[in-house]
Design a protein that fits this description.
Blueprint lengths: L3 H25 L12 H37 L14 H6 L7 H6 L1
The structure holds zinc ion.
The site of zinc ion has 8 residues, from α4.
């Protein structure tokens, strides 16, 4: 069972992480590639590749962001730190590394 202080600590970490992710998402926002459609082909495919990379980065950032949001919601509900699969307390060493973790170490390994 996590103490109030521990939950407060993870909450601060989660809020910091959320701010960091929002900044990263902003940075990874695809730039306007639509400008010069008549540019030569090789250049165009480079741009498409860049955009794919950025979309992939954004997708993973958004995934992490939703996990962080879910963790913050669990703090509100008072269920933070409980494994969503087996209901056991999530090890603090897991939460120290990944505060948005929703699974205990055992359940994580089973995925
Ligand atoms: Zn579990």
């Amino acid at each position: 069972m996590l103490s109030k202080e521990e939950i407060e600590k993870y909450k601060t970490q989660l809020e910091q992480e959320k701010r960091r992710i929002l900044v990263e998402i902003e940075k990874a926002e695809p730039q306007d590639f639509g400008g010069d459609v008549e540019s030569d082909l090789s250049e165009e495919s480079d741009e498409a590749e860049d955009m794919n990379d950025q979309l992939a980065v954004q997708a993973s950032l958004k995934e992490t962001l939703s996990e962080v949001d879910l963790a913050l919601a669990r703090i509100q509900k008072g269920t933070y730190g409980k494994c969503e699969k087996c209901g056991a307390d999530i090890e603090t060493r897991v939460l120290d590394l990944v505060p948005e973790s929703a699974l205990c170490e055992n359940c994580k390994l089973e995925i």
